[in-house]
Design goal:
single chain, 4-stranded antiparallel beta sheet, 8 strands, about 15% helix
Length: about 120
């Protein structure tokens, strides 16, 4: 019983353990927008009250500079940046009845959105 609960809890928190970027994304909610750019893509998710974003490398492997930022309209931006192999983020903001703006950079190439999810 305890093992079943621990397994269920792990699946809820992190999804199935696999090598894909989808499994690495810890965003809750439905995928709402994908913005592709030269070295990867931004993925934006929305639940009822929150918006979440990740920047995913097109070719995971070597470490490189990556960042992802999400900002609710009228609020402060939240950023995750560093040297990653596959994924920057997730970053989450409260976005109930608020638009958000998202941007990301991977190895010097970037992509972003205007105000979305309004």
């Amino acid at each position: 019983m305890a093992l079943s609960l621990a397994t269920a809890f792990a699946l809820v928190l992190g999804g199935a353990v696999a090598g894909s970027a989808d499994a690495a994304s810890a965003c809750v909610g439905r995928p709402r927008k994908t913005v592709k750019f030269a070295t990867g893509e931004l993925r934006v998710y929305k639940s009822r009250a929150y918006a979440c974003a990740t920047a995913v490398a097109a070719k995971p492997g070597k470490r490189r500079a990556m960042s992802v930022t999400i900002q609710p309209r009228g609020g402060h931006p939240v950023t995750d940046s560093g040297s990653f192999t596959q994924l920057a983020g997730p970053v989450t903001v409260h976005a109930l009845n608020r638009c958000v703006r998202v941007s990301g950079t991977i190895a010097g190439k970037s992509g972003g959105t205007s105000w979305i999810l309004c």
